[in-house]
Specification:
Length: 498
């Protein structure tokens, strides 16, 4: 007869205890990673939360452009022909068709002098205006490439994603009770303990989101490096062969003159084959040459994917597809990275959730450094200058974004990135003037004022001209953000000595 199996005593942990030296090592690694990439992580997280609404900012910035919920192949072809006529020697043109997030028809190409332009068209395909959205382009590029040249920006953002993911993993491993204490708060005691609890709770509650955006961001940012390594290992350094794996059937380059491809006919052929799907963009390469062809992207309802890309030759013959949806599991995962990272699926509810979770991740990155600085102070090794600099930098961003948006509307010749950089530096200089609580309060109030002014200036410039209802929603959201920032000031107690 077997002896009865003993049950664990009440209060005794079932899981093996993590050794204290291991916990200390992970905590040290967590702090080192966070500090090394602290400013970059914060900037990428904040800009990423804003970038969720890139399409909405595009519509808000130029609300006078036609709002089209559907468009005929003939209209798409007419818009293409008119833009190509501006520069018959254009190497390629990019057509973006209406979709729920961005219901506009636009054509991007270059002029005879090599300058790049994007034009909006109406329901008939007639070009009606040139796109002027400097702020939308600024905030999108700040998140994706940090406005750095070449592939350096993608690479640095990818490394930041790796650092963020590593910090998340090491943070969980360095706090064995982080899940058990998921709803534990120590209010009324040490400010450092309160901040640590808030840091850990937000980290745990949003952990699935944090892991997804950091992992997908790392893959997207490091894609250039991945392609380079794959090219060296498999194709003797030929990067073009790597890109061909994701481009569908190849079309031989043939510069001999030929009648310009019939865009409307090619789109009609695909719409007849896939009447249930939507087509959101067409990339026309080498128009007017024998080797001309189109890459037409199809969006399948209900699929977490950026779409399937079809290759159509100059005679409107469908040559095949890239395989993003019809290929293997790896291709399907690759096609889902962008919508997963930016929250571009599921409509407004998902975007709002991504925005709030993105702000939560931004708060986690900011509070992580604040906790480390507070811990130094408690141990008798304060770094007051760095405390002021960190608070000033963190609260400089909403102000810098607001001023950049305002200048973009009033003086379109001024690069928004220069305005953003200047305001960031000036706001960070407040670290030499005030204490951290005063810096936080004054920058929050300045940010709230800037957001209200942005909304008022936008309304003043577009009253009676706006045809896009999203513009009013964005203005109301800016005012709401200002109210939240101003209300948060009441929660901060300013010391009498400040």
């Amino acid at each position: 007869m077997h002896a009865p199996q003993q049950k664990p005593k009440p209060g005794k942990p079932i899981w093996p205890k993590i050794p204290a030296p291991f916990v200390r090592a992970m905590l040290a690694g967590h702090s080192a990673l966070g500090l090394a990439f602290a400013a970059l992580i914060y900037l990428v997280c904040f800009s990423g939360a804003v970038a969720v609404f890139t399409n909405e900012f595009n519509r808000w910035e130029q609300p006078t452009a036609p709002v089209l919920h559907s468009v005929s192949p003939a209209a798409v072809g007419a818009a293409f022909d008119e833009v190509l006529a501006k520069n018959p020697k254009a190497h390629d043109l990019f057509i973006r068709m209406p979709e729920p997030a961005l219901p506009r028809l636009s054509v991007h190409g270059d002029d005879a002098k090599g300058g790049e332009h994007t034009w909006f068209a109406d329901a008939s395909g007639k070009i009606v205006a040139e796109q002027q959205t400097p702020f939308s382009e600024f905030q999108a590029k700040l998140h994706t490439v940090l406005h750095l040249p070449g592939s350096w920006g993608f690479f640095l953002v990818g490394l930041t994603g790796v650092a963020l993911l590593s910090s998340l993993v090491s943070g969980v491993l360095s706090h064995p009770r982080v899940f058990k204490d998921a709803f534990a708060f120590r209010w009324g005691g040490s400010k450092r303990l309160q901040e640590a609890d808030l840091h850990n709770r937000i980290s745990v509650w949003g952990l699935p989101f944090h892991v997804v955006v950091s992992l997908t961001g790392a893959f997207l940012g490091l894609s250039v490096l991945i392609v380079g390594v794959l090219a060296m290992v498999v194709f003797d350094g030929n990067r073009e062969k790597v890109f061909a794996l994701f481009s569908g059937p190849a079309v031989a380059d043939d510069p001999r003159p030929a009648p310009v491809v019939d865009v409307a006919k090619g789109l009609s052929v695909l719409q007849a084959r896939h009447p249930e799907a939507g087509f959101n963009y067409i990339f026309v390469e080498h128009p007017g040459e024998t080797g001309q062809h189109m890459s037409i992207n199809r969006v399948t309802p209900g699929k977490l994917s950026r779409g399937e890309m079809f290759i159509v030759d100059g005679n409107a013959k469908v040559l095949g597809e890239a395989g993003f949806e019809s290929g293997n599991v790896g291709m399907a995962i690759y096609a889902s990275l962008t919508p997963l990272h930016f929250g571009w699926f599921g409509g407004w509810p998902v975007k709002v959730a991504y925005f709030l979770l993105g702000l939560g991740l931004t708060a986690v990155s900011a509070s992580g450094v604040a906790i480390w600085l507070a811990r130094r102070r408690d141990k008798g090794r304060p770094a007051p200058r760095w405390e002021r600099v960190w608070v000033a930098f963190c609260w400089s961003q909403p102000l810098a974004y607001g001023v950049a948006a305002m200048v973009a509307m009033l003086a379109q010749g001024v690069p928004p990135v220069a305005v953003w950089g200047g305001v960031t530096l000036l706001a960070s200089a407040s670290a030499f003037l005030w204490t951290p609580p005063v810096i936080s309060i004054r920058l929050r109030l300045a940010s709230a004022l800037s957001l209200v002014l942005v909304a008022l200036v936008h309304i003043g410039l577009n009253t009676g001209r706006s045809v896009d209802p999203v513009a009013w929603i964005m203005d109301a959201s800016l005012v709401l953000g200002a109210v939240v920032l101003a209300a948060s000031v009441k929660l901060t107690k300013t010391p009498a000595s400040a």
